[in-house]
Amino acid sequence: xxxxxxxxxxxxxxxxxxxxxxxxxxxxxxxxxxxxxxxxxxxxxxxxxxxxxxxxxxxxxxxxxxxxxxxxxxxxxxxxxxxxxxxxxxxxxxxxxxxxxxxx
Length: 104
Hints:
Elements: H1 2-13, H2 17-24, H3 27-39, E1 41-43, H4 44-55, H5 61-73, E2 77-82, E3 85-90, H6 93-103
Antiparallel strand pairs: 1-3, 2-3
């Protein structure tokens, strides 16, 4: 079991910089991260409503789900089931790690 913990720890410490920059290159994905950084945890429905109201984006939940898949692939968000809903959670560790390399 200890080996599995080490593997899991190393997996999260080696962020794919290219995937992070690709995810951040899109304005909609940056809006998603802005919203999640304010509330940290939202359902897909809540996130869709906030994007529609605050940024006046004409975007479907399916399109937002595709953006979330890119963000999740970069490690910037995670998701989990909470009852019958999918909850999206902001993960700022990849950004901290990336910036720490440049700042220190």
